Amino acid sequence: MILYTPADSPSQIADVFLGGSCTPSHLWRQDLLDALQDTTLTVFSPERSEFPSESLENPVYLHQVDWERQALQHSRTAVFWLDPAKPTSYASRIEIGVPLARHLPCIIGMNPDFPGATYIQAYAPLNAVILTYARFRTAVLQMARSLDGQHSLS
User: Fold this and answer.
1) CA nearest to 144, candidates 107, 111, 110, 108
2) E-assigned strands of 22-119?
3) Could you tell me the CA-to-CA distances from 6 to 61, 82, 126, 134, 137 in Å, in that order?
4) Cα 64 from chain centroid?
5) What are 95-153's pLDDT values in tens digits?
6) What are the sequence ranges of the domains in the chain?
7) Which of 3.40.630.30, 3.40.50.1370, 3.40.50.2000, 3.40.50.450 would CATH assign to domain 2-153?
């Protein structure tokens, strides 16, 4: 498995984009990366130890946004966890539209009380929204096994 971070260029196709909330309250990305460690999947993750300050005059921030846009465009699937510790998650809500518009497999996880959960459930394709982290994690790992099996057949 190759993990691409914003320091790398997302110029090749990846199997999975790990989008969603970046909060220290729940290390969901690291949990999934640990679980996917033995696969052959390529993963794009925008996680950073420090995010640049949000400003259109900050070139580091603009690079981060551009990297995420490119990574989403170069991904075969996307998963998003929307953390209740960061209920706004505006960037994630916009990013979710990319795989949905491209009709790519997409899993969106959140707790049932996440603000806007009902709308996201109504808007997203059937079975794309998973409530509770445990069910989300299981769904992502099932999708990953399926993708990894496709690699074996190639």
Assistant:
1) 107
2) 42-44, 75-82, 106-110
3) 11, 20, 32, 28, 24
4) 15
5) 999 999 999 999 999 999 888 899 999 999 888 999 999 999 999 999 999 998 886 55
6) 2-153
7) 3.40.50.450
DSSP output for 4-47: E-TTS---S-EEEEEEE---TT--HHHHHHHHTTTS--EEE---
Distances from the Cα of 7 to the Cαs of 3, 10, 46, 69, in angstroms? 11, 9, 10, 14
> Phi-psi category of 127—alpha, beta or left, where left has phi over 0 and alpha has psi -120 to 50?
left
